[in-house]
Amino acid sequence: MSIPNDAQHPSPLAHAPAATRALLARLHEQSLAQESGFDLRAVPSEQFKAAVSDKFIALDEDKCQFVYQLLRASGARRIVEAGTSYGVSTIYLALAASENAAALGGQPLVVGTEHEEAKADQARAYWAESGTDAVKAIDLRVGDLRETLKTGLGDIDFLLLDIWTPMALPALKLVQPHLRPGAVIVADNPITSAKGYTELFDYVRAPGSGFSSINVPYSNGLEMIVYYPPNK
Ligand SMILES: C[S@@+](CC[C@H](N)C(=O)[O-])C[C@H]1O[C@@H](n2cnc3c(N)ncnc32)[C@H](O)[C@@H]1O
């Protein structure tokens, strides 16, 4: 699925500052240009980390817009992003959390996680030029998420799993105790990465897990999971 934004299909971010929209358009374009130069799935697993250490691999623009709408619909103000890279999707999360907080009260928080320091530095530089104060809600934690997500989360409304698949279940397990009833988890590429997600989906789909899950048919899929903690 690809949603071109035109007069009939306006972006849900049409109200965002022009500088923010221009930056997002530029970064999505850069990310796609990089990806057209190599096939992620053809990279041998032992070379994968090095091959992608300087790549955006940003969440597709149409998926970012859908996630933004989900966040606005659910009123999410406290969000965790597993996999921040150069911080493209993070801007959408920060916009939605800040707009929700302005409408509903509370403080917006987007906890980002990135283990490549150079990417984290560049993400901060992009946020500084984003033209929106919404990015002040971002708490970027640099390092392995298995450490950085251990503390300081509080209640969480939404988790974006845009991470190498072996990290998806560890991220979910760290955030799970903080998820409020009705919290939403979105995981990218459940179709193309089905094998890598085996453990995550076995966990989520286990009877009595409290999770329910559906694939939204974007390109390569987009898993939308809802959590209601099971009665003890
Ligand atoms: C698909 S990219 C994220 C793209 C980003 N969400 C966006 O849309 O711009 C995944 C990122 O996760 C980072 N990553 C992978 N394993 C990690 C780990 N264990 N802890 C923290 N970050 C990790 C990678 O360095 C990579 O930049």
From TrEMBL:
An individual GO BP term: methylation
Gene3D superfamilies membership: Vaccinia Virus protein VP39 (3.40.50.150)
Keyword tags: Methyltransferase, S-adenosyl-L-methionine, Transferase
Pfam families in alphabetical order: Methyltransf_24
Annotated GO MF terms: O-methyltransferase activity
InterPro entries: SAM-dependent_MTases_sf, SAM_O-MeTrfase
Alphabetical list of PROSITE patterns matching this protein: SAM_OMT_I (PS51682)
Keyword Flavoprotein: no
Keyword RNA-binding on entry: no
Family to which this protein belongs: Belongs to the class I-like SAM-binding methyltransferase superfamily. Cation-dependent O-methyltransferase family.
PANTHER family, A to Z: PUTATIVE (AFU_ORTHOLOGUE AFUA_6G01830)-RELATED
Protein name stated in the entry: O-methyltransferase MdmC
Organism: Vanrija pseudolonga
